[in-house]
Automatic annotation (TrEMBL):
<feature type="domain" description="Peptidase S9 prolyl oligopeptidase catalytic">
    <location>
        <begin position="488"/>
        <end position="702"/>
    </location>
</feature>
<dbReference type="InterPro" id="IPR002470">
    <property type="entry name" value="Peptidase_S9A"/>
</dbReference>
<dbReference type="InterPro" id="IPR029058">
    <property type="entry name" value="AB_hydrolase_fold"/>
</dbReference>
<feature type="domain" description="Peptidase S9A N-terminal">
    <location>
        <begin position="36"/>
        <end position="428"/>
    </location>
</feature>
<comment type="similarity">
    <text>Belongs to the peptidase S9A family.</text>
</comment>
<dbReference type="InterPro" id="IPR023302">
    <property type="entry name" value="Pept_S9A_N"/>
</dbReference>
<protein>
    <recommendedName>
        <fullName>Proline-specific endopeptidase</fullName>
    </recommendedName>
</protein>
<dbReference type="InterPro" id="IPR001375">
    <property type="entry name" value="Peptidase_S9_cat"/>
</dbReference>
<keyword id="KW-0720">Serine protease</keyword>
<dbReference type="GO" id="GO:0006508">
    <property type="term" value="P:proteolysis"/>
</dbReference>
<dbReference type="GO" id="GO:0004252">
    <property type="term" value="F:serine-type endopeptidase activity"/>
</dbReference>
<keyword id="KW-0378">Hydrolase</keyword>
<keyword id="KW-0645">Protease</keyword>
<dbReference type="InterPro" id="IPR051543">
    <property type="entry name" value="Serine_Peptidase_S9A"/>
</dbReference>
<comment type="function">
    <text>Cleaves peptide bonds on the C-terminal side of prolyl residues within peptides that are up to approximately 30 amino acids long. Has an absolute requirement for an X-Pro bond in the trans configuration immediately preceding the Pro-Y scissible bond.</text>
</comment>
<dbReference type="Pfam" id="PF02897">
    <property type="entry name" value="Peptidase_S9_N"/>
</dbReference>
<dbReference type="Pfam" id="PF00326">
    <property type="entry name" value="Peptidase_S9"/>
</dbReference>
Length: 705
């Protein structure tokens, strides 16, 4: 994820200034508001900052940005140097590995100086004439932010649905392009989910997900026929439970249009429609049941079902078409294993491929469906990430997969599942003299305070001393079952080459160690996430990987919540913290169901309208637990149009921290007034944000080059 960042200046630099020269931070007006829940009263002095259209609020955010600019001035040269360095490692004129779908090979490419990809295809082979489907650079002209939400090709390969977001609010406008003529059809459908689209087999009917513009939840599926007024589109399905997220796609077999309603950790439900009968009604695959999560792949006359039914770590079943709602007809293919998490699957004419996790690492398992021969691909590194790639063709014995490690750049392979031959198609080219042999990675385990062993993946330049003198950046996320895998980053080299160690703490709340790892880091067990992170920090200091005056922490979004919680718990451990788009006002946000995505989060954090959850959330919510103590140097970022974490959460948090901190460290807030949750949209604009982030940390440990 790319985040906007900024930097601080050191106390030493501040002391060298005269008092008149020292920038003065903005001060948000105090306007107390009482909030009463479950008979308990909280007072929020900065509640009014949620008034997005209020000129006073906009002025305050702009004043904070001006303050950041003043504080950045002493490291502007370093920042510019970092940006040039980061950009210099990227091969500007680059091209993805093509994949074959139908009669075409599809790929994307970048041109020198281009911020956005150009999407292309060639018919028959890569020697065919190039067709440009979408030129991201041309489409982004005139927009401060631009995101192509994806595209979907019709069965006759002549039309493409595509979607665009020019605000960063994740509200996409849907259009259709004729790929033969280049004409874009006149109908434009606003407020859609973007990539959740599907063609019917008739090449004129399409289905899409409509969003509620306020909550940003996809909740309706419509049918549209080309050449008709979108106002006449037919509603074919509506999700009545606002705790569910909804997606839409075409099955790999192309036989079905599939609607999936999912409530993470609670339930799943699929609705199916044969693509050859676009005017028929969708039918339920299996009615939702509390606690039952599943996903499906259609193959010939049956479905493979990945399910947690009587299987916490999931197992694989199969069921014939027409009997899907009868669980007695489900037949087990791969049983549940307590030490292996079944993450995903792909199906080929003669092979079944599984993505699994064991001991915190990803594995790819290939099963020959005729001979039942079973194998795991060998990767030979202590910390890595491997995953099943995009494989649209059933009738092949070649598996496309991706691989990366902390020292190995992102790599794309084809694997012949019959001959066992692995072919490297492309490895990310890192310019500037990169040699993977200059770096080393480690995998260690740290005992958390309750005895659980927490995996930690680390990378550093060979020769880096482990005597407490090295600066170290500790990163984690730890929510929603999202696993933070140890992959490669070319931008990270700028820290490693300056003596930093980079560590990923695979804390509870993710799913690295299986489903239980996630369950033990959510709801009324959420504090395990924070405790794991702090205990890893203490271990890294105690074992002299680093020291408290050189340890940095970083997290974004729910990882920003993590940052807020750990600096309330143990601020003395960290020299500096980067909290990007942080979810820090947990209680107030989860009480407001009008805020985008709130209702879908109840099974992650709890519903604070229920007192046990209110009390527990209140006990760790970063904003509510700011106290009078010395906080570390803090860099906080947000986006005015953020659809995930509203800008006022970090704004309120920084305002409160400034009034409560007993130390002299800098607390800075930067708001991107033109972007949302992901920051800037161009690939080089994102590098400027990373340069700011790195300059912040390097400056604090006295590294100016």
């Amino acid at each position: 994820m790319k985040h906007l960042c900024f930097t601080l200046i050191t106390t030493l630099t501040l002391h060298s200034m005269t008092q008149a020269q020292t920038p003065v931070p903005p001060k948000a007006a105090v306007k107390p508001k009482e909030l009463v829940t479950n008979g308990h009263t909280r007072v929020d002095n900065y509640y009014y900052l949620n008034e997005r259209e209020n000129p006073e609020v906009i002025k305050y955010l702009n004043d904070e940005n001006a303050y950041v600019d003043q504080m950045l001035a002493p490291v502007k040269t370093l920042q510019d140097k970092l940006f040039t360095e980061l950009k210099g490692r990227i091969k500007e004129q680059d091209e993805s590995v093509p994949y074959k779908e139908g009669n075409f090979f599809y790929y994307s490419r970048y041109i020198t100086g281009g911020e956005y990809p150009i999407y292309c295809r060639r018919k028959g082979s890569m020697q065919g004439t190039e067709e440009i489907l979408f030129d991201g650079n041309a489409m982004a002209e005139g927009h401060n932010y631009y995101q192509l939400g994806g595209y979907e090709i019709s069965d006759n390969e002549e039309l493409a649905i595509f979607s665009e977001d020019t605000v960063s609010r994740r509200l996409y406008t849907l259009r259709v392009k004729n790929l033969k003529t280049g004409t874009i059809y006149p109908e434009a459908i606003a407020n859609t989910e973007g990539g959740s689209v599907a063609w019917a087999a008739d090449n004129k009917t399409l289905f899409y997900v409509k969003k509620d513009p306020q909550t940003l939840l996809g909740y309706q599926v419509y049918r549209h026929v080309l050449g008709t007024d979108p106002k006449a589109d037919v509603l074919v399905y509506e999700e009545k439970d606002n705790q569910f997220y909804m997606g839409l796609h075409r099955s790999k077999s192309k036989k079905y249009v599939e609607i999936v309603s999912d409530h993470n950790g609670v339930a799943t439900e699929y609705q199916l429609l044969e693509a050859s009968q676009p005017n028929a009604a969708f039918k339920t695959f299996l009615p939702r049941q509390k606690g039952h999560e599943y996903d499906i792949v259609h193959y010939q006359n049956k479905f493979y079902v990945r399910t947690n039914w009587k299987a916490e770590n999931f197992r694989l079943m199969e069921v014939p078409e027409g009997k899907t709602a009868d669980m007695a007809a489900w037949k087990e293919v791969i049983p549940h294993r307590p030490d292996v998490y079944l993450g995903n699957m792909d199906v080929f004419v003669n092979h079944l491929v599984l993505g699994e996790r064991k001991a915190g690492l990803t594995n790819i398992r290939v099963i020959n469906q005729k001979t039942k021969a079973d194998e795991y691909l060998d990767f030979g590194e202590p910390a890595y990430v491997a995953g099943i790639g995009y494989n649209p063709d059933f009738n092949t014995n070649v598996l496309r997969f991706g691989y990366s490690s902390l020292t190995t750049p992102s790599s794309t392979f084809d694997y012949n599942m019959d001959t066992k031959v692995k072919t490297l198609l492309k490895q990310q080219e890192v310019l500037g003299g990169f040699d993977k042999n200059n770096y080393a990675s480690e995998r260690i385990y740290v005992k958390s305070r309750d005895g659980v062993q927490v995996p930690v993946s680390m990378v550093y330049r060979k020769g880096t001393k482990k005597d407490g003198s090295a600066p170290l950046l500790q990163y984690a996320y730890g929510s929603y079952g999202y696993s933070t895998d140890p992959g490669f980053s070319s931008t990270r080299l700028s820290l490693l080459d300056r003596g930093f160690i980079f560590a990923i703490a695979h804390i509870r709340g993710g799913q690295e160690m299986g489903r239980r790892w996630y369950e033990d880091g959510k709801m009324l067990k959420k504090k395990n996430t924070f405790n794991d992170f702090v205990d890893v920090s203490k271990y890294l200091i105690d074992t002299k990987y680093t020291s408290a005056d050189k340890l940095f922490a970083m997290g974004g979004s729910a990882g920003g919540l993590l940052m807020g919680a750990v600096i309330n718990q143990a601020p003395q451990l960290y020299r500096g913290v980067v909290a990007a788009v942080p979810f820090v006002d947990v209680v107030t946000t989860m009480l407001d169901e009008s805020i985008p995505l709130t209702t879908g989060e109840f099974e992650e954090w709890g519903n604070p309208k229920n007192k046990p959850y209110y009390d527990y959330m209140l006990s760790y919510s970063p904003y509510d637990n700011v106290t009078k103590q010395a906080y570390p140097n803090l860099l906080v970022t947000t986006g005015l149009h953020d659809s995930q974490v509203q800008y006022w959460e970090p704004a309120k948090w920084v305002a409160k921290l400034r009034t409560m901190t007993t130390g002299t460290n800098q607390l800075l807030l930067h708001t991107n007034m033109e972007a949302g949750h992901g920051g800037a949209s161009g690939r080089f604009q994102a590098l400027k944000e990373i340069a700011l982030e790195y300059a912040f940390m390097l400056n604090l440990v006295g590294i100016q080059q």
